[in-house]
C-alpha cells in the first residue's frame, strides 16, 4: 500500500462548481471506499459539516510477483537480476530489452566469439543499430550487471585520410594537422616532386586536428602494409600554437611503444623563417589549453626552440597555412 498526502483543495479541485454539501458527499464517498484517510493533525476547515484540511491518498501497491518469478527462473545466469528484483517497476519498463538480451545470450551466444562493431552487435541483439551507442543499451547492460566487453565489440573511428605518392619500403610518412596544408602538399607531390622541404615523403596523412588521436588507435587496421612496414618514419606537422603542440605530444604518447612520431623539423623551421618577415602574427585564442610539456621543443635546435617559446609567450602563434605550395 502506498500513501501520498493531498490537501482538501486538491481533492475538491474537479468539483469547484458544486455546492459545499455536494463536495462533502464526494469526500465521504472517498472515505467510505478507503481511497483516502484524514490527516487528523491537519485540523478541520471550520465549516459545517467540518472536513479535514489534508488527507492521505491511498493507492494499492502493484503486484510484481509474476515479474519477480520471471527474473528468478527464466533469465540466464550471466544476467544479474539483483537490481531488477529490488526495482521491479524498472524491470517492467526495461523488460522488452532485457528479454531480447536474454534470448541472445541463451540461443546465440556463440556469435560473441567473433568480434563485431558496436552498432553491428547492437542490431544483432536488439534490432536497433544505435541502441547500444546512443539509446538505452548501456543502461540495460549496467542494470543486468554486465560490462560492454562481454559483447566482444569494438568502436569505429573515422577512416584515416591519406595520399600515398609511393609504396616504397621504407618510407617517410607525414601527418598534417590541417586540410589546406594536406591539399597543398599532395598537389606538390602530384606535380612530380618527391620531396617536401628537402625531405623525401612517401605518404601524407590528414590528421583533422585532434581527430588523429582516434584515427591512429586503428592505424594497424586501416592502412596498407607498406605504411606500417619496419623502417618507416612518421613525422608530424601542425600549427605552432599550444593546441597544435598538445595534439602532437598526446599523439606521441598514445603511440609510445608502437610508433615513434617526431615533429617535421624542416616545416617548422620554414614557418619560423617566413614568420620573421611578417608584419605581425595572429594572437593565440584565450581558451587554448596551454598545458604542454618539453617533448616537442626537445626535438629542435636550441635557437629554434627558444624562438618558438618567445612567440608563444608573446601570446602569438604561427598557423600551418603560412606555408603554401610555393614554399615546398
Mean pLDDT: 89
The SSE string, one letter per element, is EHHEEHHHEHHEEEHEEEHHEHEHH
User: Widest sheet: strand order?
Assistant: 6-10-7-11-12
Strand content: 5-15%
Number of distinct helices:
13
| Weakly predicted, low-confidence segments | none
The radius of gyration over CA amounts to 34 Å
Helix percent reads: 25-40%
Tell me the span between the first and last alpha carbons: 80 Å
The description of the largest β-sheet is: 5 strands, mixed
Structural class: alpha/beta
**Overall 3D shape:** elongated
Number of separate strands: 12
Please, could you describe this protein's structure?
The chain has 328 residues and is α/β, with parallel strands linked by helices. The protein is 39% helix and 13% strand. The strands form 4 sheets. A 5-stranded mixed β-sheet has the order 6-10-7-11-12, with helices on both faces. Helix 9 (211-217) packs parallel to helix 11 (242-254). It is elongated and about 100 Å long. The model has no long low-confidence stretch (mean pLDDT 89).
Give a quick set of tags describing it:
single chain, 328 residues, alpha/beta, five-stranded mixed beta sheet, three-stranded antiparallel beta sheet
Amino acid at each position: 500500500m502506498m500513501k501520498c498526502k493531498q490537501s482538501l483543495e486538491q481533492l475538491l479541485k474537479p468539483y469547484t462548481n458544486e455546492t459545499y454539501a455536494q463536495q462533502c458527499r464526494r469526500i465521504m464517498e472517498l472515505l467510505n471506499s478507503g481511497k483516502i484517510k484524514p490527516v487528523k493533525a491537519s485540523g478541520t476547515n471550520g465549516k459545517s459539516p467540518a472536513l479535514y484540511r489534508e488527507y492521505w491518498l491511498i493507492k494499492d501497491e502493484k503486484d510484481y510477483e509474476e515479474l519477480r518469478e520471471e527474473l528468478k527462473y527464466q533469465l540466464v545466469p550471466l544476467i544479474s537480476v539483483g537490481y531488477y528484483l529490488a526495482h521491479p517497476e524498472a524491470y517492467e519498463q526495461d523488460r522488452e530489452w532485457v528479454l531480447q538480451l536474454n534470448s541472445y545470450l541463451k540461443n546465440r551466444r556463440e556469435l560473441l566469439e567473433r568480434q563485431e562493431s558496436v552498432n553491428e552487435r547492437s542490431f544483432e541483439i536488439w534490432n536497433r543499430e544505435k541502441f547500444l551507442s546512443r539509446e538505452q543499451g548501456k543502461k540495460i547492460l549496467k542494470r543486468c550487471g554486465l560490462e560492454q566487453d562481454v559483447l566482444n565489440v569494438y568502436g569505429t573511428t573515422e577512416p584515416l585520410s591519406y595520399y600515398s605518392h609511393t609504396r616504397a619500403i621504407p618510407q617517410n610518412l607525414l601527418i598534417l594537422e590541417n586540410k589546406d596544408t594536406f591539399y597543398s602538399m599532395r598537389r606538390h607531390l602530384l606535380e612530380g616532386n618527391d620531396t617536401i622541404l628537402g625531405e623525401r615523403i612517401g605518404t601524407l596523412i590528414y590528421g583533422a586536428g585532434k581527430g588523429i588521436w582516434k584515427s591512429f588507435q586503428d592505424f594497424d587496421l586501416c592502412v596498407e602494409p607498406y605504411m606500417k612496414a619496419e623502417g618507416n618514419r612518421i613525422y608530424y606537422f601542425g600549427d605552432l600554437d599550444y593546441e597544435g603542440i598538445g595534439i602532437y605530444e598526446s599523439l606521441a604518447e598514445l603511440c609510445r611503444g608502437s610508433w615513434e612520431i617526431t615533429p617535421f623539423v624542416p616545416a617548422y623551421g620554414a614557418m619560423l623563417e617566413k614568420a620573421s618577415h611578417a608584419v605581425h602574427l595572429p594572437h593565440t585564442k584565450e581558451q587554448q589549453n596551454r598545458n604542454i610539456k618539453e617533448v616537442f621543443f626537445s626535438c629542435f635546435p636550441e635557437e629554434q626552440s627558444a624562438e618558438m617559446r618567445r612567440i608563444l609567450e608573446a601570446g602569438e602563434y604561427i598557423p600551418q597555412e603560412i606555408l603554401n605550395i610555393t614554399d615546398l
